[in-house]
Write a structure and sequence with these properties.
- With 312 residues, the chain is mainly α.
- The protein has one domain.
- Helices cover 54% and strands 0% of the residues.
- It is globular, with a radius of gyration of 19 Å.
- The C terminus is likely disordered.
- Bound molecules: zinc ion (2 copies).
């Protein structure tokens, strides 16, 4: 069956995202003449601290999938780290990701490579308004466990201020070269690594599990994204705290979670079982949506959210 492609002419441009993404890329390019080895080291250090802890461990495995638990005060600390990533409001991040799993690679997936192509899944889906995005009541139904915390509303509202808050510290430490590389270049690189999890790992690589979506395992995304590249494993069992499941699938974030568990800061950790012991009926799959039934990508969220409200 030929996949129906997304008609972007029918969608409204999201100027806030377009301008924000353009500005961060212009500033990342502008950082190049400011290169020093020290600034590069600061960029890499912050990248490999904020990306694994803030984005993959916290936004993804803890808040989106509840693959483990931490004390509430510590969850707030971790979420603040996540806000340093500059990846937009945490509430929307988590809601959109839960939507991605529920409708993965169907027409209602917010960023399916199957229907929109590589660049759509990587970044251009952000250039358009999604129907659910404009109504917090709609997407808020996906995240009742987060909307009840006023701190997450605060972090969502002020996410860019939090992301920029380390600029004065960087400036005092090393002037403009530290700001340009430690902030803007680092945020741009982190965005692309997160976006590769939506694009490359739904397009290339190998599969351990026969999921109905196109999720796949890509080693270089796993290395850059602290284990997130083992994405087929993740889609197959989305609330498992470990994404690497074979001996060669190194998963830095899983090691960090085990470290937190060891010192008593993480508990109820959803542990992996060997791949061969996972039965077909234990594999998570998205809601089936046929291309014949739905005319375009962004209809009927309301109906599905009503359904989901009875599940979460
Ligand atoms: Zn995915
Ligand atoms: Zn996920």
């Amino acid at each position: 069956m030929k996949n129906k492609t997304i008609d972007t002419k029918a969608l409204k441009p999201h100027w806030g995202n377009i301008i924000g993404i353009a500005v961060i890329h212009i500033l990342a390019i502008a950082a190049i003449p400011f290169f020093t080895w020290k600034a590069f080291a600061v960029c890499m250090f912050l990248f490999f601290v904020i990306s694994p802890i803030g984005v993959t461990l916290t936004y993804h495995r803890l808040l989106s999938h509840r693959a483990f638990k931490v004390p509430q005060w510590f969850e707030y600390v971790l979420a603040t780290f996540g806000a340093l990533s500059g990846q937009g409001p945490v509430l929307l991040w988590v809601a959109e990701h839960r939507l991605h799993h529920r409708f993965s690679d169907s027409q209602k997936d917010p960023h399916s490579a199957r229907h929109g192509g590589f660049w759509w899944s990587h970044v251009t889906h952000l250039f358009y308004h999604k129907e659910f995005e404009d109504d917090q009541k709609l997407w808020g139904r996906y995240i009742p466990d987060l909307t009840c915390h006023s701190y997450y509303h605060f972090l969502s509202k002020w996410n860019f201020a939090v992301a920029l808050s380390i600029a004065p510290v960087l400036f005092l430490m090393g002037g403009w070269s530290f700001v340009m590389w430690g902030l803007f270049m680092r945020i741009a690189l982190m965005l692309h690594v997160t976006w590769f999890v939506n694009s490359a790992t739904h397009r290339w690589g190998y599969r351990n599990f026969d999921t109905k979506d196109d999720s796949s395992n890509v080693w270089w995304v796993a290395l850059l994204g602290a284990g997130e590249g083992w994405h087929n494993n993740h889609h197959a069992q989305s609330n498992c705290a470990a994404h690497g499941r074979m001996w060669w699938e190194f998963d830095l974030t899983w090691q960090l979670i085990k470290g937190l568990e060891f010192v008593g800061l993480a508990y109820d950790v959803k542990r992996p079982v060997p791949v061969k012991q996972v039965k077909a009926q234990e594999i998570d799959n998205a809601v089936e949506v046929t291309t014949d039934q739905y005319g375009n990508q962004f209809i009927d969220y309301q109906e599905e959210i009503e359904l989901l409200a009875n599940v979460v």
